[in-house]
């Protein structure tokens, strides 16, 4: 026979167990809702706060469409844009591993968001002119007043003209010009770890947001052979300092890095920082860029203007050349993301699918099981967003 005291103890244990189950269920529900909000909206970024200074990091990997996303912001006259400044660190410290370089990159990024462009100088062979900054002529801010008074503004296609007019502009003018902007946007492809960026996300002085751009690894592999200047980066990634880096080793590390960045954002970001990170697939962006652009601009406190709309239409709405000629690198469309289906042989597709399976499953890229499926354009290999985000 069970005593009253024993019954009370049993009831307390049952109550505590139910309470623990309830709390665990609530926690899982909050986590699911956070993930749903993060990935099932166009933006996911927080709305403008009281601070007028808002800065953005476009976080991606090589050949994933980050240049296009960068130009979406570079076209805005209120944005000071820099393209891959950390390349200077990799060029100077090419004998170090990519893991070692993450912290120096973070420190450089912090300095740049505070308009301390002089932080670049230790990594440059020369820092006399604005043209000593990597890819400077693609930046509207570096090709227009107050940086360069000789050139009035920049369209993406005007980089060469800017180079001839503004290349002797003193380096210090870029730093002074930066201070006149409320929005600094940097695009980077060399970060493999999101945790190293946590101090920047938590710094109210920087007020940073992150757009994480991912792309089908099969498309990345297909576009890498035609891209110059990747050899040194490949060697650092694969740690093949005295030889040529293996492309599949490089791709494996890139896939793992993008997946780890995503998992870190979902599981390790403090709740107060969740709305400072958003992930977008290149394929979704190319299908319909403007909803993303409008939401991103709104979150940054920027105005969408007619010239930007015209630029987006010009660089995304076009037809494939009938003669099979190569496509202009500055243009994108809903067709471009799947060109890998013709460019890669099925053996390479199989290798990259097996190597990057976790990333493909997580980001919603369907594996093809045969050459016939690979060439079947009616088979959608990019799953709908609502089905694509899995653990």
What is the structure about, briefly put?
Helix content is 47%, strand content 7%. It has helices at residues 4-39, 66-74, 87-92, 98-113, 159-166, 171-178, 198-201, 217-223, 231-238, 247-267, 282-287, 289-300, 306-316, 340-343, 346-355, 357-363, 371-375, 385-388; strands spanning 54-59, 79-83, 183-188, 208-214, 277-281.
Protein described:
The chain is an alpha/beta fold and about 400 residues long. The chain has a domain at about 55-115 and about 180-315 and about 330-390: P-loop containing nucleotide triphosphate hydrolases (Rossmann fold, 3-Layer(aba) Sandwich). The protein has 18 helices and five strands. The chain has a five-stranded parallel sheet, sandwiched between helices. The termini are far apart.
Mean pLDDT: 82
Helix run count = 18
Shape: globular
Q: Give the assembly state of these chains.
A: single chain
Q: Looking at CATH, which topology of the domain at 54-115 and 179-314 and 332-388 would you report? A: Rossmann fold
Secondary structure: helix percent: 40-55%
Largest sheet: 5 strands, parallel
Please list the strands of the largest sheet in the order they lie side by side. 2-3-1-4-5
Query: From the helix content, strand content and strand pairing, which structural class follows?
Result: alpha/beta
Low-pLDDT segments, ≥5 res: 28-42, 319-332, 387-391
Key descriptive features of the protein:
391 residues, alpha/beta, Rossmann fold, five-stranded parallel β-sheet, 18 helices
